[in-house]
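Please predict the structure of the following assembly.
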Amino acid sequence: MAAGAQTSSEYIKHHLTNLTFGKDPSDGVWKLAETAQDAQEMGFYAIHLDSMGWSIGLGFIFIFLFSFVAKKASTGVPAGLQNAIEMIIEFIDTNVKDTFSHTNKLIAPMALTAFMWVLLMNLMDLVPVDWVPQLATFIGANFFGMDPHHVYFKIVPTTDPNVTMGMSLSVFFLALFYSIKNKGVGGFVGELTLHPFSSKNIFIKLILIPINLFLEGVALLAKPISHGLRLFGNLYAGEMIFILIALLPLYAQWTLSVPWAIFHILVIVLQAFIFMVLMVVYMNMAHDTGEH
Amino acid sequence: MNINLTLIGQAISFAIFVWFCMKFVWPPLTSALEERRKKIADGLSAAELGQQALEKAKEEVGIKLADAKSEAKNIISMAEKRQGDILDEANTKASEEAQKKLRLAEQEVEQLSMKLKESLKKDVSKLVIEGAEMILKKEIDKKAHDKAIQDLVTKI
């Protein structure tokens, strides 16, 4: 909490604002938002440079690490890194095989990518809350001539709902695609309109269609939203607590931040795992053509 | 917490990472794992086969050993029998030979005794004749006497 004259609420707000690059609604020029207010006014035509940068960077770390090992994967006794990565692969493979009962070559690599990527993004939560933002402020102020109070920098991409929702919506649309592909348009529409209430009488059936459509529609739309917001909410809350702990006097912080960080390790892995499992479950539902 | 283009950016990068993972990460790693699993399974089954072969070999060794033992016993008993036979044969041969030799000796003895008898006869008859000549120095009809001697000789 070095930024001198900040109040606690300013400090928190500063930490929860992304580095936003977008179209200023007043003059239509694309530029960095200078305040949280600015960022909000930019609306949809803006992009969080920090979220994108960190998530893509971490994604590349995952990709390079894994493809490096994959390239020289030996069938002999695995050593060190290969062993660790094989453990992750087998863990994902077992989970996917247990949950996903159809054949689709996309699912397991997608689950691996989601798990590792989310895990790495969540891990950024364990980096002390001030380190990277302070560094960014320093660089922004000295090399780009920015007002140090206007350099926003969040390093945990999963505390940005755009990131988690971006992934969960991708999964949702993929699930829609596979639903229609596997069940046909009729089958998919039937699934939405003829369940859970059904009748042998054709008239009652017709009356029940809107009710079913409403219930199933809500259930359908709730899936991607809960999928994305669950991850976001958990990590956002975790980040928030780290920020609050950082407001304590320096000598007292460790009494809370250490236990919370240790506990948070569990949350990080668990949330990545839940995100991956839910993704596989939704994909499995999209492939289920049988009657339930 | 503004929803903006980041959402789409994230979806695009997610798609790219998934594609890359599906293309270059997942297949080589899983195939390596599968291959190793197969290798281990092969090794284990080979070990089992080896174990079985060893067991079989041990069994065979036992059988062969037993065979060899019984054969050796057979050979020994045959040898013993043969030894007896040879001894018997030798005994009978020896006794036959001995008998033969005995018989030959007997014959020889007989011949000798015959010869002796003959010569003795001749000697005795000569002696008798000489004795008689000495006794009957005087006129003796040689012819008559010869006849008498001849008679004597045949009598002896």
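Chain A touches chain B through 54 residues (CB under 8 Å). The mean pLDDT of chain A is 87.
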